[in-house]
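[SOLVED] Need 3D model of a two-part complex

Original post:
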Amino acid sequence: MLDASPWSITSVLLGGIATLAIFSFLVRENAFYRFFEHVFIGLAAAVLPVLTIRDFLWPKILEPMLGLDIVVYPDGTVSEPYQPLYLLYLIPMAFGSLYYFIYSKRHAWLARLVIGFSLGLSGALAIRGFFAEALPQIVGSFKPLIVYINGNFSAAESFNNVLFVATLLLVFNYFFFTFGKEGSIQGKIAPLGRPLLMVCFGAFFGSTVMARLSLLVERVQFIVRDWFSTILQIFGYG
Amino acid sequence: MIERRLIYLLMIVAVSIPVIFEFSWPPSRLVSAERMYEVIEQVQVNKGEVALLWVDFGPGTIAENKPQAEVIIEHLFRRRIPVVMLSQYQLAEAVLNSIPREISARLEKEMPGQSWRYGEAWINAGYQPGGAQMMQNLAAAKDLSKYFGRDVSGMPFTHYPAFASIGGIEHVKLVAEVTGLVGVFDTIIQFFQKSGYRPTVVHGCTSITIPEAYIFLDSNQLHGLLEGVAGAAWYSEVLKQRNPQSQNEALLVRNTALIIAHVVLILLIVAGNVVGLVRARRQNRA
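Solution:
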Protein backbone atom coordinates (compact mmCIF):
# COMPACT_ATOMS: atom_id res chain seq x y z
CA MET A 1 0.00 0.00 0.00
CA LEU A 2 1.28 3.43 -0.88
CA ASP A 3 2.37 5.96 1.67
CA ALA A 4 0.23 9.03 0.94
CA SER A 5 2.85 11.67 1.79
CA PRO A 6 3.47 14.23 -0.99
CA TRP A 7 7.14 13.22 -1.11
CA SER A 8 6.24 9.56 -1.61
CA ILE A 9 3.65 10.36 -4.31
CA THR A 10 6.11 12.62 -6.15
CA SER A 11 8.88 10.02 -6.04
CA VAL A 12 6.55 7.29 -7.33
CA LEU A 13 5.31 9.53 -10.15
CA LEU A 14 8.84 10.53 -11.13
CA GLY A 15 9.97 6.90 -10.87
CA GLY A 16 7.23 5.82 -13.27
CA ILE A 17 8.06 8.54 -15.77
CA ALA A 18 11.78 7.65 -15.59
CA THR A 19 10.98 3.95 -16.07
CA LEU A 20 8.84 4.62 -19.14
CA ALA A 21 11.53 6.96 -20.50
CA ILE A 22 14.16 4.22 -20.23
CA PHE A 23 11.79 1.64 -21.76
CA SER A 24 11.12 4.02 -24.67
CA PHE A 25 14.56 3.02 -25.93
CA LEU A 26 12.96 -0.28 -27.00
CA VAL A 27 10.95 1.67 -29.58
CA ARG A 28 13.85 3.80 -30.74
CA GLU A 29 16.66 6.01 -29.45
CA ASN A 30 15.12 9.31 -28.36
CA ALA A 31 15.76 12.49 -26.36
CA PHE A 32 13.36 11.47 -23.58
CA TYR A 33 15.44 8.33 -22.95
CA ARG A 34 18.76 10.19 -23.17
CA PHE A 35 17.62 12.82 -20.66
CA PHE A 36 16.75 10.27 -17.97
CA GLU A 37 19.87 8.21 -18.70
CA HIS A 38 21.99 11.29 -17.99
CA VAL A 39 19.97 12.09 -14.87
CA PHE A 40 20.67 8.61 -13.52
CA ILE A 41 24.40 8.77 -14.33
CA GLY A 42 24.62 12.20 -12.70
CA LEU A 43 22.80 11.03 -9.58
CA ALA A 44 24.94 7.92 -9.25
CA ALA A 45 28.15 9.92 -9.66
CA ALA A 46 27.09 12.59 -7.16
CA VAL A 47 26.06 10.15 -4.44
CA LEU A 48 29.55 8.63 -4.07
CA PRO A 49 31.47 11.76 -2.92
CA VAL A 50 28.58 12.91 -0.73
CA LEU A 51 28.34 9.59 1.11
CA THR A 52 32.12 9.21 1.36
CA ILE A 53 32.34 12.59 3.07
CA ARG A 54 29.20 12.15 5.20
CA ASP A 55 29.69 8.54 6.33
CA PHE A 56 33.49 8.24 6.37
CA LEU A 57 35.70 11.31 5.88
CA TRP A 58 33.82 13.59 8.28
CA PRO A 59 32.83 11.25 11.17
CA LYS A 60 35.89 8.97 11.10
CA ILE A 61 38.73 11.32 10.09
CA LEU A 62 37.98 15.04 10.26
CA GLU A 63 35.67 15.18 13.28
CA PRO A 64 38.01 13.30 15.68
CA MET A 65 41.08 15.03 14.24
CA LEU A 66 39.57 18.46 14.84
CA GLY A 67 38.13 17.40 18.19
CA LEU A 68 34.60 18.21 17.06
CA ASP A 69 33.18 14.93 18.36
CA ILE A 70 33.99 15.89 21.96
CA VAL A 71 30.91 16.91 23.93
CA VAL A 72 31.41 19.63 26.54
CA TYR A 73 28.90 19.19 29.38
CA PRO A 74 27.34 22.19 31.23
CA ASP A 75 29.68 21.61 34.21
CA GLY A 76 32.69 22.08 31.92
CA THR A 77 33.74 18.42 31.81
CA VAL A 78 34.20 16.72 28.45
CA SER A 79 32.94 13.38 27.12
CA GLU A 80 36.49 12.28 26.30
CA PRO A 81 39.88 14.02 26.18
CA TYR A 82 41.25 15.13 22.82
CA GLN A 83 43.61 12.56 21.28
CA PRO A 84 46.49 14.37 19.51
CA LEU A 85 47.43 11.05 17.85
CA TYR A 86 44.55 11.68 15.42
CA LEU A 87 46.81 14.30 13.84
CA LEU A 88 48.86 11.41 12.44
CA TYR A 89 46.05 11.05 9.88
CA LEU A 90 47.59 14.11 8.21
CA ILE A 91 50.58 12.04 7.08
CA PRO A 92 48.68 9.57 4.84
CA MET A 93 46.37 12.41 3.75
CA ALA A 94 49.36 14.49 2.64
CA PHE A 95 50.94 11.48 0.95
CA GLY A 96 47.71 10.65 -0.88
CA SER A 97 47.36 14.26 -2.00
CA LEU A 98 50.61 13.88 -3.94
CA TYR A 99 48.47 12.11 -6.55
CA TYR A 100 47.30 15.52 -7.76
CA PHE A 101 50.85 16.21 -9.04
CA ILE A 102 49.86 13.99 -11.95
CA TYR A 103 48.65 17.25 -13.53
CA SER A 104 52.16 18.76 -13.32
CA LYS A 105 54.71 17.80 -15.97
CA ARG A 106 57.60 18.80 -13.74
CA HIS A 107 56.49 17.07 -10.54
CA ALA A 108 54.57 14.11 -11.95
CA TRP A 109 57.11 11.75 -10.35
CA LEU A 110 55.53 12.57 -6.97
CA ALA A 111 52.23 11.11 -8.17
CA ARG A 112 54.07 7.96 -9.21
CA LEU A 113 55.08 7.42 -5.57
CA VAL A 114 51.42 7.20 -4.63
CA ILE A 115 50.59 4.99 -7.61
CA GLY A 116 53.48 2.66 -6.74
CA PHE A 117 52.36 2.46 -3.12
CA SER A 118 48.79 1.71 -4.18
CA LEU A 119 49.93 -1.01 -6.58
CA GLY A 120 52.06 -2.63 -3.88
CA LEU A 121 49.21 -2.51 -1.39
CA SER A 122 46.69 -3.89 -3.88
CA GLY A 123 49.09 -6.65 -4.89
CA ALA A 124 49.67 -7.70 -1.29
CA LEU A 125 45.94 -7.70 -0.56
CA ALA A 126 45.22 -9.67 -3.74
CA ILE A 127 47.76 -12.36 -2.80
CA ARG A 128 46.35 -12.70 0.71
CA GLY A 129 42.82 -12.67 -0.64
CA PHE A 130 43.60 -15.27 -3.28
CA PHE A 131 44.89 -17.79 -0.78
CA ALA A 132 42.04 -17.17 1.66
CA GLU A 133 39.52 -17.67 -1.14
CA ALA A 134 41.09 -20.32 -3.38
CA LEU A 135 42.64 -22.78 -0.92
CA PRO A 136 39.30 -23.97 0.56
CA GLN A 137 38.00 -24.32 -3.00
CA ILE A 138 40.99 -26.45 -4.04
CA VAL A 139 40.52 -28.61 -0.96
CA GLY A 140 36.77 -28.74 -1.69
CA SER A 141 37.44 -30.14 -5.17
CA PHE A 142 39.01 -33.31 -3.73
CA LYS A 143 35.77 -35.25 -3.62
CA PRO A 144 35.28 -38.95 -2.91
CA LEU A 145 34.15 -40.77 -6.05
CA ILE A 146 32.23 -43.38 -4.05
CA VAL A 147 29.93 -41.80 -1.48
CA TYR A 148 28.37 -43.53 1.49
CA ILE A 149 25.66 -41.68 3.42
CA ASN A 150 24.85 -43.17 6.85
CA GLY A 151 26.63 -46.35 5.80
CA ASN A 152 24.59 -46.73 2.58
CA PHE A 153 26.02 -46.29 -0.91
CA SER A 154 24.59 -43.14 -2.54
CA ALA A 155 24.48 -43.53 -6.31
CA ALA A 156 23.27 -39.97 -6.91
CA GLU A 157 26.00 -38.32 -4.79
CA SER A 158 28.64 -40.61 -6.28
CA PHE A 159 27.50 -39.71 -9.81
CA ASN A 160 27.61 -35.99 -8.90
CA ASN A 161 31.15 -36.27 -7.60
CA VAL A 162 32.36 -38.33 -10.56
CA LEU A 163 30.84 -35.77 -12.93
CA PHE A 164 32.45 -32.92 -10.97
CA VAL A 165 35.92 -34.48 -10.92
CA ALA A 166 35.72 -35.54 -14.60
CA THR A 167 34.65 -32.00 -15.62
CA LEU A 168 37.43 -30.46 -13.53
CA LEU A 169 40.13 -32.70 -15.04
CA LEU A 170 38.88 -32.39 -18.62
CA VAL A 171 38.68 -28.59 -18.47
CA PHE A 172 42.12 -28.42 -16.85
CA ASN A 173 43.43 -30.60 -19.65
CA TYR A 174 41.79 -28.38 -22.29
CA PHE A 175 43.76 -25.38 -21.00
CA PHE A 176 47.04 -27.29 -20.57
CA PHE A 177 49.32 -25.92 -23.26
CA THR A 178 52.77 -26.67 -21.81
CA PHE A 179 53.51 -29.77 -23.89
CA GLY A 180 52.56 -30.60 -27.46
CA LYS A 181 49.26 -32.46 -27.56
CA GLU A 182 49.60 -33.97 -31.05
CA GLY A 183 49.24 -37.72 -31.04
CA SER A 184 49.10 -38.03 -27.25
CA ILE A 185 46.19 -39.29 -25.15
CA GLN A 186 46.08 -35.86 -23.56
CA GLY A 187 45.60 -34.32 -27.01
CA LYS A 188 42.87 -36.80 -27.91
CA ILE A 189 40.76 -36.11 -24.84
CA ALA A 190 41.38 -32.34 -24.90
CA PRO A 191 38.35 -31.58 -27.16
CA LEU A 192 36.08 -33.14 -24.51
CA GLY A 193 36.66 -30.05 -22.39
CA ARG A 194 35.04 -27.79 -24.95
CA PRO A 195 31.41 -29.04 -24.71
CA LEU A 196 31.69 -28.90 -20.90
CA LEU A 197 32.80 -25.29 -21.17
CA MET A 198 29.89 -24.61 -23.52
CA VAL A 199 27.48 -26.01 -20.90
CA CYS A 200 29.02 -23.61 -18.39
CA PHE A 201 28.68 -20.64 -20.75
CA GLY A 202 25.09 -21.66 -21.43
CA ALA A 203 24.39 -21.64 -17.69
CA PHE A 204 25.95 -18.17 -17.41
CA PHE A 205 23.92 -16.90 -20.36
CA GLY A 206 20.68 -18.42 -19.04
CA SER A 207 21.20 -16.90 -15.62
CA THR A 208 21.97 -13.53 -17.21
CA VAL A 209 18.67 -13.65 -19.11
CA MET A 210 16.88 -14.58 -15.86
CA ALA A 211 18.40 -11.54 -14.13
CA ARG A 212 17.30 -9.21 -16.93
CA LEU A 213 13.78 -10.63 -16.92
CA SER A 214 13.63 -10.15 -13.13
CA LEU A 215 14.35 -6.46 -13.68
CA LEU A 216 11.56 -6.26 -16.26
CA VAL A 217 9.08 -7.99 -13.94
CA GLU A 218 9.98 -5.67 -11.03
CA ARG A 219 9.48 -2.58 -13.20
CA VAL A 220 6.17 -3.88 -14.55
CA GLN A 221 5.07 -4.55 -10.97
CA PHE A 222 6.08 -1.01 -10.01
CA ILE A 223 4.25 0.54 -12.97
CA VAL A 224 1.05 -1.49 -12.44
CA ARG A 225 0.87 -1.63 -8.63
CA ASP A 226 2.44 1.66 -7.53
CA TRP A 227 2.60 4.15 -10.38
CA PHE A 228 -0.73 3.46 -12.04
CA SER A 229 -2.59 3.17 -8.73
CA THR A 230 -1.05 6.50 -7.60
CA ILE A 231 -2.33 8.17 -10.76
CA LEU A 232 -5.78 6.69 -10.12
CA GLN A 233 -5.65 7.98 -6.53
CA ILE A 234 -4.71 11.47 -7.73
CA PHE A 235 -7.71 11.51 -10.04
CA GLY A 236 -9.96 10.19 -7.28
CA TYR A 237 -10.45 6.65 -8.58
CA GLY A 238 -8.27 4.88 -6.02
CA MET B 1 11.87 -10.86 -40.42
CA ILE B 2 9.72 -10.35 -37.30
CA GLU B 3 9.60 -6.82 -35.95
CA ARG B 4 11.69 -7.06 -32.75
CA ARG B 5 9.40 -4.57 -30.99
CA LEU B 6 6.57 -7.08 -31.27
CA ILE B 7 8.68 -9.52 -29.24
CA TYR B 8 9.31 -6.86 -26.57
CA LEU B 9 5.58 -6.15 -26.47
CA LEU B 10 4.76 -9.85 -26.19
CA MET B 11 7.17 -10.21 -23.28
CA ILE B 12 5.76 -7.18 -21.44
CA VAL B 13 2.20 -8.45 -21.93
CA ALA B 14 3.22 -11.91 -20.71
CA VAL B 15 4.78 -10.65 -17.47
CA SER B 16 1.94 -8.15 -16.94
CA ILE B 17 -0.78 -10.84 -16.78
CA PRO B 18 0.07 -12.25 -13.31
CA VAL B 19 0.89 -8.75 -12.06
CA ILE B 20 -2.45 -7.27 -13.14
CA PHE B 21 -4.59 -10.24 -12.09
CA GLU B 22 -2.41 -10.89 -9.01
CA PHE B 23 -2.27 -14.65 -9.32
CA SER B 24 0.65 -16.79 -8.32
CA TRP B 25 1.93 -20.34 -8.48
CA PRO B 26 3.81 -22.04 -5.64
CA PRO B 27 7.57 -21.55 -5.97
CA SER B 28 9.95 -24.42 -6.63
CA ARG B 29 11.83 -25.93 -3.72
CA LEU B 30 15.45 -24.74 -3.64
CA VAL B 31 17.76 -26.73 -1.38
CA SER B 32 20.33 -23.96 -0.94
CA ALA B 33 17.64 -21.49 0.19
CA GLU B 34 16.26 -24.06 2.61
CA ARG B 35 19.78 -24.68 3.91
CA MET B 36 20.12 -20.94 4.49
CA TYR B 37 16.86 -20.87 6.42
CA GLU B 38 18.09 -23.64 8.71
CA VAL B 39 21.44 -21.87 9.19
CA ILE B 40 19.72 -18.65 10.32
CA GLU B 41 17.32 -20.69 12.43
CA GLN B 42 20.28 -22.24 14.28
CA VAL B 43 22.05 -18.92 15.02
CA GLN B 44 22.20 -18.29 18.76
CA VAL B 45 23.13 -14.86 20.08
CA ASN B 46 23.96 -13.77 23.61
CA LYS B 47 23.68 -10.17 24.79
CA GLY B 48 25.85 -7.91 22.67
CA GLU B 49 26.22 -10.40 19.82
CA VAL B 50 24.87 -9.44 16.42
CA ALA B 51 24.35 -10.37 12.79
CA LEU B 52 25.94 -8.23 10.06
CA LEU B 53 23.84 -7.64 6.97
CA TRP B 54 25.69 -6.20 4.01
CA VAL B 55 23.19 -4.54 1.69
CA ASP B 56 25.36 -4.06 -1.39
CA PHE B 57 22.84 -3.32 -4.08
CA GLY B 58 21.15 -0.37 -5.69
CA PRO B 59 18.56 0.22 -8.38
CA GLY B 60 20.43 -1.99 -10.88
CA THR B 61 19.71 -5.25 -9.05
CA ILE B 62 16.90 -4.22 -6.72
CA ALA B 63 14.50 -6.61 -8.45
CA GLU B 64 16.34 -9.66 -7.14
CA ASN B 65 18.29 -8.39 -4.13
CA LYS B 66 15.53 -6.46 -2.36
CA PRO B 67 13.24 -9.48 -1.82
CA GLN B 68 16.27 -11.42 -0.58
CA ALA B 69 17.19 -8.70 1.93
CA GLU B 70 13.54 -8.54 3.01
CA VAL B 71 13.22 -12.25 3.79
CA ILE B 72 16.57 -12.32 5.62
CA ILE B 73 15.64 -9.29 7.76
CA GLU B 74 12.18 -10.71 8.44
CA HIS B 75 13.70 -13.96 9.65
CA LEU B 76 16.33 -12.19 11.81
CA PHE B 77 13.66 -9.87 13.27
CA ARG B 78 11.35 -12.79 14.06
CA ARG B 79 14.24 -14.48 15.85
CA ARG B 80 15.09 -11.21 17.67
CA ILE B 81 18.68 -11.24 16.45
CA PRO B 82 20.07 -7.66 16.48
CA VAL B 83 21.19 -6.65 13.00
CA VAL B 84 23.91 -4.20 12.00
CA MET B 85 23.07 -3.04 8.48
CA LEU B 86 25.83 -1.59 6.35
CA SER B 87 26.97 -1.33 2.76
CA GLN B 88 30.04 -1.19 0.57
CA TYR B 89 27.95 0.29 -2.24
CA GLN B 90 27.00 3.93 -2.25
CA LEU B 91 23.70 3.46 -4.11
CA ALA B 92 22.37 1.22 -1.32
CA GLU B 93 21.64 4.28 0.86
CA ALA B 94 17.88 4.29 0.22
CA VAL B 95 17.27 0.57 0.78
CA LEU B 96 19.44 0.51 3.92
CA ASN B 97 16.90 2.86 5.46
CA SER B 98 13.65 1.64 3.96
CA ILE B 99 13.73 -2.16 4.11
CA PRO B 100 14.04 -2.68 7.91
CA ARG B 101 11.42 0.02 8.51
CA GLU B 102 8.98 -1.69 6.12
CA ILE B 103 9.59 -5.11 7.70
CA SER B 104 9.29 -3.82 11.28
CA ALA B 105 6.01 -2.03 10.40
CA ARG B 106 4.67 -5.24 8.84
CA LEU B 107 5.66 -7.38 11.84
CA GLU B 108 4.22 -4.88 14.33
CA LYS B 109 0.94 -4.97 12.40
CA GLU B 110 1.03 -8.77 12.40
CA MET B 111 1.84 -9.02 16.12
CA PRO B 112 0.15 -6.15 17.99
CA GLY B 113 1.91 -5.30 21.24
CA GLN B 114 5.33 -6.33 19.98
CA SER B 115 7.81 -3.85 18.53
CA TRP B 116 10.93 -3.83 16.42
CA ARG B 117 12.53 -0.44 16.92
CA TYR B 118 15.55 1.21 15.40
CA GLY B 119 18.47 0.90 17.80
CA GLU B 120 17.04 -2.27 19.35
CA ALA B 121 16.25 -4.58 16.45
CA TRP B 122 18.65 -3.00 13.98
CA ILE B 123 21.11 -0.20 13.44
CA ASN B 124 22.24 1.41 10.22
CA ALA B 125 26.03 1.81 10.06
CA GLY B 126 25.74 3.23 6.54
CA TYR B 127 28.19 3.28 3.69
CA GLN B 128 31.60 1.79 4.47
CA PRO B 129 34.15 2.65 1.79
CA GLY B 130 37.57 1.02 1.47
CA GLY B 131 36.84 -2.48 0.12
CA ALA B 132 39.43 -5.04 1.21
CA GLN B 133 41.28 -2.65 3.56
CA MET B 134 38.09 -1.71 5.34
CA MET B 135 37.15 -5.38 5.66
CA GLN B 136 40.54 -6.20 7.18
CA ASN B 137 40.20 -3.37 9.68
CA LEU B 138 36.70 -4.50 10.55
CA ALA B 139 37.88 -8.07 11.17
CA ALA B 140 40.79 -6.80 13.31
CA ALA B 141 38.70 -4.33 15.35
CA LYS B 142 38.64 -5.07 19.09
CA ASP B 143 35.21 -3.50 19.39
CA LEU B 144 33.03 -3.08 16.32
CA SER B 145 30.89 -0.48 18.12
CA LYS B 146 33.96 1.72 18.48
CA TYR B 147 35.05 0.97 14.92
CA PHE B 148 31.71 2.11 13.51
CA GLY B 149 31.51 4.95 16.03
CA ARG B 150 28.25 6.47 14.85
CA ASP B 151 25.25 5.41 12.84
CA VAL B 152 24.05 7.22 9.70
CA SER B 153 22.16 9.78 11.73
CA GLY B 154 25.34 10.69 13.65
CA MET B 155 24.24 9.06 16.90
CA PRO B 156 26.99 7.11 18.72
CA PHE B 157 26.59 3.33 18.79
CA THR B 158 26.98 3.58 22.58
CA HIS B 159 23.60 5.36 22.66
CA TYR B 160 21.87 2.09 21.76
CA PRO B 161 22.20 -0.59 24.50
CA ALA B 162 21.89 -3.52 22.05
CA PHE B 163 24.84 -2.23 20.02
CA ALA B 164 26.86 -0.33 22.65
CA SER B 165 29.69 -2.86 23.01
CA ILE B 166 29.55 -5.51 20.34
CA GLY B 167 33.16 -6.55 20.78
CA GLY B 168 35.32 -8.18 18.11
CA ILE B 169 34.51 -10.29 15.06
CA GLU B 170 33.87 -13.35 17.26
CA HIS B 171 30.68 -11.63 18.44
CA VAL B 172 29.36 -11.52 14.88
CA LYS B 173 27.37 -14.74 14.71
CA LEU B 174 26.15 -14.37 11.15
CA VAL B 175 27.25 -12.44 8.09
CA ALA B 176 24.65 -12.06 5.36
CA GLU B 177 25.71 -10.48 2.09
CA VAL B 178 23.10 -9.45 -0.48
CA THR B 179 24.63 -8.25 -3.70
CA GLY B 180 24.89 -8.68 -7.43
CA LEU B 181 28.23 -6.93 -7.67
CA VAL B 182 31.24 -8.96 -8.70
CA GLY B 183 34.13 -8.73 -6.23
CA VAL B 184 32.12 -7.34 -3.32
CA PHE B 185 31.04 -10.67 -1.88
CA ASP B 186 34.56 -12.11 -2.36
CA THR B 187 35.97 -9.43 -0.06
CA ILE B 188 34.01 -10.86 2.85
CA ILE B 189 35.15 -14.43 2.16
CA GLN B 190 38.76 -13.28 1.79
CA PHE B 191 39.15 -10.84 4.65
CA PHE B 192 36.33 -11.01 7.18
CA GLN B 193 37.94 -13.63 9.39
CA LYS B 194 40.66 -13.90 11.94
CA SER B 195 42.87 -16.64 13.29
CA GLY B 196 40.60 -19.25 14.83
CA TYR B 197 37.30 -17.61 13.89
CA ARG B 198 35.39 -17.47 10.65
CA PRO B 199 31.76 -16.35 10.99
CA THR B 200 28.90 -18.17 9.30
CA VAL B 201 28.34 -16.53 5.92
CA VAL B 202 25.16 -16.61 3.84
CA HIS B 203 24.62 -14.88 0.52
CA GLY B 204 21.80 -13.55 -1.63
CA CYS B 205 22.99 -13.29 -5.22
CA THR B 206 21.51 -12.18 -8.50
CA SER B 207 20.83 -14.75 -11.20
CA ILE B 208 23.93 -13.63 -13.10
CA THR B 209 26.24 -14.49 -10.23
CA ILE B 210 24.65 -17.86 -9.34
CA PRO B 211 27.30 -19.97 -11.14
CA GLU B 212 30.08 -18.16 -9.25
CA ALA B 213 28.27 -18.40 -5.92
CA TYR B 214 27.89 -22.19 -6.28
CA ILE B 215 31.68 -22.51 -6.09
CA PHE B 216 31.64 -20.99 -2.59
CA LEU B 217 28.69 -23.11 -1.59
CA ASP B 218 30.42 -26.27 -2.78
CA SER B 219 33.58 -25.49 -0.79
CA ASN B 220 31.55 -24.70 2.36
CA GLN B 221 32.84 -21.13 2.43
CA LEU B 222 29.19 -20.24 2.10
CA HIS B 223 26.57 -21.79 4.37
CA GLY B 224 23.44 -20.83 2.47
CA LEU B 225 22.46 -19.17 -0.78
CA LEU B 226 19.44 -17.35 -2.18
CA GLU B 227 19.41 -17.63 -5.96
CA GLY B 228 17.72 -14.59 -7.46
CA VAL B 229 13.96 -14.10 -7.15
CA ALA B 230 13.36 -17.86 -7.07
CA GLY B 231 15.56 -18.26 -3.98
CA ALA B 232 13.83 -15.42 -2.16
CA ALA B 233 10.41 -16.82 -3.15
CA TRP B 234 11.16 -20.27 -1.72
CA TYR B 235 12.70 -18.75 1.44
CA SER B 236 9.55 -16.67 1.93
CA GLU B 237 7.47 -19.82 1.44
CA VAL B 238 9.44 -21.62 4.17
CA LEU B 239 8.98 -18.55 6.40
CA LYS B 240 5.24 -18.68 5.72
CA GLN B 241 5.05 -22.40 6.50
CA ARG B 242 6.55 -21.71 9.95
CA ASN B 243 4.80 -18.31 10.41
CA PRO B 244 1.44 -18.49 8.60
CA GLN B 245 0.82 -14.74 8.95
CA SER B 246 3.94 -13.86 6.99
CA GLN B 247 3.07 -12.05 3.75
CA ASN B 248 4.77 -13.02 0.50
CA GLU B 249 2.05 -12.51 -2.12
CA ALA B 250 3.85 -9.78 -4.10
CA LEU B 251 7.03 -11.86 -4.22
CA LEU B 252 5.17 -14.95 -5.40
CA VAL B 253 3.45 -12.88 -8.11
CA ARG B 254 6.90 -11.67 -9.22
CA ASN B 255 8.21 -15.24 -9.27
CA THR B 256 5.16 -16.36 -11.29
CA ALA B 257 5.68 -13.53 -13.81
CA LEU B 258 9.28 -14.66 -14.12
CA ILE B 259 8.19 -18.25 -14.78
CA ILE B 260 5.79 -17.06 -17.50
CA ALA B 261 8.53 -14.90 -19.04
CA HIS B 262 10.81 -17.95 -19.15
CA VAL B 263 8.14 -20.09 -20.80
CA VAL B 264 7.50 -17.38 -23.43
CA LEU B 265 11.24 -17.07 -24.01
CA ILE B 266 11.67 -20.83 -24.48
CA LEU B 267 8.71 -20.92 -26.87
CA LEU B 268 10.18 -18.02 -28.86
CA ILE B 269 13.57 -19.78 -29.07
CA VAL B 270 11.90 -23.02 -30.24
CA ALA B 271 9.67 -21.13 -32.73
CA GLY B 272 12.63 -19.13 -34.03
CA ASN B 273 14.66 -22.29 -34.61
CA VAL B 274 11.75 -24.10 -36.31
CA VAL B 275 11.12 -21.13 -38.63
CA GLY B 276 14.85 -20.89 -39.34
CA LEU B 277 15.07 -24.60 -40.19
CA VAL B 278 12.00 -24.47 -42.45
CA ARG B 279 13.37 -21.44 -44.31
CA ALA B 280 16.79 -23.05 -44.71
CA ARG B 281 15.16 -26.18 -46.20
CA ARG B 282 13.08 -24.11 -48.60
CA GLN B 283 16.15 -22.19 -49.72
CA ASN B 284 18.08 -25.43 -50.22
CA ARG B 285 15.25 -26.83 -52.38
CA ALA B 286 15.07 -23.64 -54.40
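Edit: Chain B is about 50% helix and 15% strand.
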